[in-house]
Amino acid sequence: MVLRCTSDDVGFRALVAELDAELWRRYGELQASFAPHNVIDTLATVVVARDGDRAIACACFKPSGPESPESVELKRVYVAPEARGRGLGAQVVAELERWARELGFTTMLLETGPNQPEAIALYAKLGFTRVAPFGPYADLPASICMSKRL
User: Fold this and answer.
1) What is the rounded CA–CA span in Å between residue 38 and residue 70?
2) 37 half-sphere exposure, CB direction, 13 A CA radius
3) Which domain holds residue 42?
4) What count of other Cβ atoms lies within 10 Å of the Cβ of residue 105?
5) Taking the CA atoms of the chain, what radius of gyration do you get in angstroms?
6) How many CB atoms lie under 10 A from the CB of residue 60?
């Protein structure tokens, strides 16, 4: 079950810690240049998928900023290793797309990297297309940015 919550959710925080550890394993020191853009302080637009009491997948979005007021940025998409292959990544993204549309946003942006081929494939399958690196990622050569009209 995918539930809406905030970034204060304990399950979300635990999954984000797992995600950060995985990104450091995949990217090594290169992750240091991305880490500042992955900080989630307080956010009201978070979803978590649960299996019983255990949080097994998550994602969130935040407004892209004043340069693109109609857009949100998809962040912190993660599925716990033991829950992969069950379509949970698509489910959490779909719920965030619905939520963003409800709030009047028309575009969802995201940033990922070359060492996450399964994420790139998922986003392409969900209708995201590559765009030029935007905002804080413009000067990060390893960034892969994508966009989708909601």
Assistant:
1) 21
2) 21
3) 2-109
4) 20
5) 14
6) 26
Number of folded domains that form the chain: 1
- The verdict on residue 56 lying in a domain is yes
Straight-line distance from the first to the last Cα atom of the chain, in angstroms, rounded to the nearest whole number? 23
Query: Pairing state of beta strands 71-79 and 107-112?
Result: parallel
**Residues 102-149 pLDDT 10s:** 999 999 999 999 889 999 999 999 999 999 998 888 887 788 999 999
- DSSP output for 5-52: E-TT-HHHHHHHHHHHHHHHHHHGGGHHHHGGGG---S-S-EEEEEET
Helix axes 88-102, 117-125, angle to 10 degrees: 50
In a domain, 46, yes or no: yes
Count Cβ atoms below 10 Å from residue 12 Cβ, excluding itself.
Answer: 23
Contact 24, 16 (CB under 8 A): no
Strands 144-149 and 107-112: antiparallel
Predicted TM-score (pTM) of the model is: 0.91
